Amino acid sequence: MVELRPVDESLFAWAQQGDFGFLVEHELLPAFDTDVSHCLAPLEPYSKDYESDLEDYRDYLDAPDKALLAAVVEGQWAGYLAISCHWNGFALVEDLAVERTMRRHGVARVLMDAAVAWARRQGLAGVTLETQSNNVAACLFYQRYGFRLEGIDRFLYRGLSPQTREIALFWYLPFEDVPR
């Protein structure tokens, strides 16, 4: 069973050792107003790891406009989510990471439910986040959760890696239907 747990020092130690990478076998060829599962193209498989550093979010613990949420499965740390109030009146999910061995247990859903509840308590318009076209499992999760793909940036990562195929995808979960 997945449960939220207050963050303590053991989460930071666990995250340094965690495996948050994934195998890329497809990429999403993004299109608006469509089921993204119909927009997949196969790739030569490769491993991907964003190498997030949970220490970047330590100051979220005491900030009124930010939160660091964490979940456990059977008492073991399983994942975390960092969220903040964004300039546009939405809550911004800055990082969502689930340990590879804890995936498919509902960890991401429990964390996202907590993030949505936090955003509502903050009086925000909804939740937004960005992911990449090669993180297909995440894209499918966000769509199933109710997020809408509302932004595509083909050049966001080109400054870091000029030959990258990664496309930045911006997802929104408005709390009230917002006209497009």
UniProtKB/TrEMBL annotation:
**A Pfam family assignment:** Acetyltransf_1
Q: Which domain of life is it from?
A: Bacteria
Residues in N-acetyltransferase domain copies: 26-176
Q: Which residues cross the membrane?
A: none
Q: Which PROSITE patterns match?
A: GNAT (PS51186)
The record's InterPro entries line, in alphabetical order, gives:
Acyl_CoA_acyltransferase (IPR016181), Bact_Acetyltransf (IPR050832), GNAT_dom (IPR000182), Streptothricin_AcTrfase (IPR008125)
> Under which name does UniProt file this protein?
Streptothricin acetyltransferase
